[in-house]
Amino acid sequence: MNEQALKKRIVLVTQQYGAEIPVKNICQRYFNCSVKTANERIKARTFALPAFRTTGTNSGDFFVAAEDLAELIETQRANAKAEWEAANSIH
């Protein structure tokens, strides 16, 4: 993964959502699921990113770190680009 691209992506994600992002704000756009489904996946530890609560209880919203979301986006982008280049014989 391109470290410079990742750093830019982290800045962009942080500017858009903040350093700690409520899962409810991103689950539909990035994971194509409802808040309920995202919460179920988090509890089952099958969500695509590590999630946490800022409270010391089992209630409250789940959050993810902007760095983790940015890394996921960049990884997916790099994979898609590599597949596209391979399919189009671009080196």
TrEMBL record:
Pfam family, any one: PyocinActivator
GO biological process, one term: regulation of DNA-templated transcription
InterPro entries documented for this protein: Tscrpt_reg_PrtN
Name this polypeptide is given: Pyocin activator protein PrtN
